[in-house]
């Protein structure tokens, strides 16, 4: 047998011996741990407790969010043409219906004149055909065809007039010109962006509330608003929207509308804090979430009866921060085990520690 083969066999045997030693050593350690646990279980389990009592619950909460403009609109061109006049610039305040720019209306005026001429011709044709129909010169079908031509000509005339009127581009809302996309002499076509107009007279603060908080909110409730930018000022807003469905994080979007001051100091994009002052609640019994066996959904807690733990059924209500409202199953004075339940069974010997 070759020397290399002998070395390989010896190495393999050594590996197996080492693995066997490790497994035997681990088994011994596990047995020692099991013996320690068994010895510990023979005595009382150390637990922490809390005496149940009614207390006032503070449901007021704050939520941070971002201010959004009441309206944020990008004005686009509806006709093709060259910009002949720009009446406003970035930062200017505009009123609804105010002319902000003008497009060359020469071609639009020609279209309107042609449409007007076609309409007049169609109108005379209808009058002539109706007169001939009375004498039997034309049929009813021919008269109806001329009336249809008149209606089409009238529609084309209205369209041409509308385009001519749209040569004066007007602001659809009141607000501040936040951005201008065009210059005098620019050629625009339908859909070309012209101006971005932002209405800051009112703002919307978008925040979220969890399920325990949102049930106490309703549209129209007043909310105190503060901003880090103006720490010495506070504003009053009203809840304008509460989502009917929670988001992916199980929170409910809430919008608070606020009237800006005369100087429009608050800007869209700033951070704000909403303080929700909720009605006072009657005193109720709560326990820490840790008191429940497994989870709140188990509806089970342990009560301390003398030196033993007694499994007890309760009916949980709202989860308020790290505590849970108890609707039924607990009375004032009951001693609830709030820590150490993982090692308990019904009737186990326990020792309360601080």
UniProtKB/TrEMBL annotation:
Please list every transmembrane segment annotated in the UniProt record, as residue ranges: 6-23
Pfam families, per database record:
Beta-barrel_RND_2, BSH_CzcB, YknX_C
InterPro entries recorded:
Beta-barrel_RND_2 (IPR058792), BSH_CzcB-like (IPR058647), RND_pump_MFP (IPR006143), YknX-like_C (IPR058637)
Q: Which residues form the CusB-like beta-barrel domain?
A: 206-276
List the molecular function annotations (GO) for this entry. Answer: efflux transmembrane transporter activity
What region holds the CzcB-like barrel-sandwich hybrid domain?
77-199
List the residue ranges forming a coiled coil, or say none.
143-170
Please state the span of the N-terminal signal peptide per the UniProt entry.
Answer: none
A GO CC annotation given for this chain: efflux pump complex
The YknX-like C-terminal permuted SH3-like domain covers 285-351
* Annotated keywords: Coiled coil, Membrane, Transmembrane, Transmembrane helix
Keyword set includes Transit peptide: no
Identify the NCBIfam families for this entry. Answer: RND_mfp
UniProt record similarity statement: Belongs to the membrane fusion protein (MFP) (TC 8.A.1) family.
Record's protein name: Efflux transporter periplasmic adaptor subunit
């Amino acid at each position: 047998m070759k020397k290399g083969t002998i070395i390989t066999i010896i190495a393999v045997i050594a590996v197996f011996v080492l693995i066997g030693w490790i497994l035997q050593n681990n088994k011994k350690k596990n047995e020692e741990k099991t013996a320690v646990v068994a010895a510990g279980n023979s005595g009382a389990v150390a637990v922490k407790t809390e005496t149940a009592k009614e207390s006032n619950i503070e449901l007021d909460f704050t939520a941070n969010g971002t201010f959004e403009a009441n309206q944020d609109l990008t004005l686009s061109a509806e006709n093709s043409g060259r910009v002949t006049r720009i009446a406003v610039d970035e930062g200017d305040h505009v009123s609804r219906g105010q002319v902000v720019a003008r497009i060359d209306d020469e071609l639009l005026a020609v279209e309107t004149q042609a449409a007007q001429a076609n309409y007049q011709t169609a109108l005379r044709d209808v009058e002539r055909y109706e007169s001939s129909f009375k004498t039997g010169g034309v049929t009813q079908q021919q008269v109806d065809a001329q009336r249809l031509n008149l209606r089409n000509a009238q529609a084309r005339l209205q369209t041409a007039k509308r385009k001519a009127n749209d040569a004066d581009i007007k602001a659809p809302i009141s607000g501040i010109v936040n951005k201008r996309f065009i210059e005098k002499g620019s050629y625009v076509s339908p859909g070309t962006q012209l101006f971005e107009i932002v209405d800051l007279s009112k703002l919307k603060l978008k925040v979220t509330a969890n399920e325990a908080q949102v049930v106490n909110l309703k549209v129209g409730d007043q909310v105190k608003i503060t901003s880090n930018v103006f720490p010495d000022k506070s504003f009053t807003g009203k809840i304008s929207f509460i989502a009917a469905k929670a988001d992916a994080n199980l929170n409910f979007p809430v919008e608070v509308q606020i009237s800006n001051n005369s100087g429009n100091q608050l800007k869209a994009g700033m951070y704000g804090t909403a303080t929700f002052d909720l009605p006072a609640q009657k005193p109720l019994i709560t326990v820490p979430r840790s008191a429940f066996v497994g989870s709140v959904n188990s509806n089970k807690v342990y009560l301390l009866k003398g030196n033993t733990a007694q499994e007890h059924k309760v009916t949980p209500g709202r989860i308020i921060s790290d505590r849970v409202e108890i609707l039924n199953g607990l009375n004032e004075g009951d001693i609830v085990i709030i820590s150490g339940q993982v090692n308990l069974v019904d009737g186990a010997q326990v020792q309360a520690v601080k």
